[in-house]
What we know:
CATH topology of the largest domain: Heat Shock Protein 90
Largest sheet: 6 strands, mixed
Number of helices: 18
Number of strands: 18
Strand order of the largest sheet: 10-14-15-13-12-11
Structural class: alpha+beta
Helix content: 25-40%
Strand content: 15-25%
CATH superfamily of the largest domain: Histidine kinase-like ATPase, C-terminal domain
Amino acid sequence: MAESKQSDPNQFEPDELVAFPDDIYEDETLSEFVTEARGHIEDAEGALLELENDPYERDLIDRVFRAFHTIKGVAGFLQLEDMVVLAHSAEALLDRFRQTGFACGSEQASHVLEACDAMTSLIGHLAGDPAPKRKQLHDLAARLARVAGELTEDPGADSSATGATAGGAPASAPEPEAEVEEPAPREPEAEAGPPEQPESKPASEAPPKRRRRAKATGPSIQVGTRRLDRLVDMVGELVIAQQMVAQDPHLAKLRNDQFERKLAQVSKITRDLQESSMSLRMVAMKSTIQKMTRLVRDVASRSGKSVEFSATGEDTELDRNVVEAIGDPLVHMIRNSIDHGIEPEEERVRVGKPARGRVELRAYHRSGSIFIEIRDDGRGLKREAILAKAISKGIIPPDSSVEEMADAEILKLIFQPGFSTASTVTEISGRGVGMDVVRRNIEALRGKIDIQSEEGKGSVFTLRLPLTLAIIDGMIVRIGETQFVIPTLTIEQTMRLDEHKRHKLMVEGEMINVRGSLVPIHRLTQDLSVAPQGECQDTTLVQVEANDRRACLAVDEVVGQQQVVIKSLGKALGRTNGLAGGAILGDGRVAMILDIDSLLTALETPLATV
């Protein structure tokens, strides 16, 4: 195992990159190490953020210490010297807090958080990301060593006799480790850590300590995501096959009670299997929320504001692909909440608010969807400022009757490309780049984003997302003998075609009056070049909405609502405007799933009144 020691940063060139041994990528344990190391760093970051509110909490310091200690041990076994040097420096600093009892406050935690960031970049390099610069890495290791050297016990304080420390807080007497046992390293450690201090107080007098409760979990194994996705796909095929069998017209003639009971049992097992396989793709929001906690801390520090962040819903689960995709939109919205929403302390005090701003993130399930709220108690969105900016950029014609525009319609203008009401551009935000991308990314996930805001009191951004991208709730409609699936989230209402409300305009084409607003009518047989195999009546209208565009799709019949498994259309049809994929229905026929956003965009539908 490599020896854990500090090196001279000056021996490296400024542009020299970290290079690991060539044979490391052939090691069978590398993938497991990368996964475990990332988990350790995430846990360490969470503990460090908690330490800022409780800087003397020994359990939290121990958690961070063990994270770097474990990474150092395995990295040494794999001969990853740069990783060992960094982990050893962070571990040594944390051990000084353990030995001396000094407070690990915000300034000290910032040093260790830098080590977490650097370690994340090293772990990413093992997984194929670009290599970090070696000199910067060793500069950080040297700085951590200097900070550790500055933490010395006050010679005038006898901590063993009084239980007090130089930091002025009660000494945390060494107790048995937290109730959760850490896994033992896979190899002998290179060096033993400093000896623990003797017990300074009887157990009955020791300060109360918070303990982490172990969750009742069984043994686990790691499974590659490709294997998992393949399993989910095969179960989806099984569900389709089961529906085809159950709806086969030949079986309907049997009329056998015993057979029907057996078929019902197979159907139940198939549904349970589908639910179980889909649950394997579900991950908790804990990691994402923890990253947002770190983001709030960093952005508030850079903007010179005091911000309190709270989050609920860490255990809320959704599809791992959705979790990965919502990271960037959440980052942008939280940055905006702090930079544009939260006022400086003096301004908040002047208007009667607490000096410290507040940002809240909530995640919860409702009606088969996942909801994520980002709430702040800042300035709120200013209606007049948004209108003035929209008019100046030509988004709204100057002669428009803006007084009649609803607040919801005005607030959605911030999603227009290049839109920003910020008076100055900062390094954090203000360039008008981002909110249009946020909505585009959310809608690409078949989700929606809504805004509520009150000037002077704050804003609430609410994301509604599907739990999974593999299954969709849809309405099956028929045109002649052709069936389509319309995503339920895009449907506002269905109605009979009333000829008295239908209008034919020279430019806009066929329109219908819906509660005082003219909404365009589209006939799928014409717009998607679908040739129905039977007579087409187009007597029912399905009103849909996407990206502030509304339209009514004319169909023959609404067959019903159903969850369908989304199937790719392949390379030949994968980029067809208006189609999001296909679904095999219970009778074996294929129905196209409509992509309402791209369909309406391709048809250049005029904006309808919101």
